[in-house]
Amino acid sequence: MRLAALTVTLALAACDRGTPSFDQGQGPMVHVVWHLPENEAVDVPLRQSIRVQFDRFLAPDSPLRQAICVTSSTIGGDGATDNCMGSLAPQYDPADRVAAWLLPWDLLPDTRYNVRIRAPATEKDAWGIRAFDGAPLEKEFTFAFHTAKDGSVPANEPRRDIGFCDPVPVGCPLPANACDTPDPTPRTTPAPSGILPSCATGFANCHTPGGLARAGPQGSVLSLAPADIRRLVAGEVATQTATAPDPAVAQRGPSDLFGQNMPYIDRNRPGNSYLLYKLILADSLDCLGESGPFVDPAVCAEGQEGAYARFSKDLYDCKDLPDARAPGDPDSGCPSDAGVTILARAIADAGDIEPPPVEPWIRADQWQPPAPGEYARLRSRIRGQGMPPDARISHQWVQTMSAWIGAGAKLDACY
After folding, report:
1. Which of 12, 125, 334, 337 matches a 20 to 30 Å C-alpha distance to 133?
2. How far apart are CA 270 and CA 31, in angstroms?
3. DSSP character string of 262-298
4. What are the residue boundaries of the structural domains of the chain, listed by start?
């Protein structure tokens, strides 16, 4: 896993191939492409977050700024109370372009809830949903759902806690010679410490943060040591975007221009973390509905489902692998050709989507692609070279990094 991650790191830090020219203006209006609960859903759990996926990347503060109004009425009513529910806790995950509003308490049972996703009222209105370049939600979006009659319906909230060091084991590949030399080493999906294992120090004039492993003029995307990553979390500025009045200060406010003086990792705010957008742009090259500017379309396999990584072979519980015995040993239970028949069912079949260490806000089979040209628009604000065609990482890695930042970007001592 470290070797694979190092390969990704080297690719991401490859030297400047030239920045393509993109439209610097405002992109198309924003639209809702998915939401949960579904419209007119019934028996919704009483502790249910409200989640909305948009077709554009949002301004980091957009979900915080009076972007949602939830009202309630008895079932059969018009749902026309004017009092919006307070104390909703918004989170924005740019990995999937999903805004989630978490409830601080249970909803009322047997009640109709009406949801309004707000659009800015005027061009200069500071409230409502906007894309990172200022384009507004096209129009207010509404839906409704009915809660269950009691608390017996379990909530289906994703597990979003993620440590810096802890990968998730997903099983063991069955070796061809399993009867004589089994390999019980579990395969894992990487934690952030596995996604960001090293700097590419073998390139000259590449983007590595000043004062870390290698100085360079461009700004950084990756770092080697936890101490270096701690510096990025503490407020290190992506210097390749430092065009604001004070290039040494990381911008974080709603009035700051997206893409200028961004923090590398903005603790608790993945939507304002430069590093995450560089990974998203690398992810976009892996056939997420739109190829990057340097990508040969031939790298996108026909029928490939986005950039989700898939298992290359069947995986099994490590404890189910046979004991090591010589081929043909009559006590081994294995035939002389070392074929294996004792494992009846794999825990993951070849071709299945690999799970990330965290559960995303939206399932893979419900994920919707962004608006056409969205990655090019994002790249015009996240300055620097376009990602090279071999900088291909899985969408699960991006989801993991986003959840880790959203949970506070806490650092554990791994090595």
Report:
1. 12
2. 21
3. -BSS-TT-GGG-HHHHHHHHHHHTTTSSS--TT--GG
4. 32-147
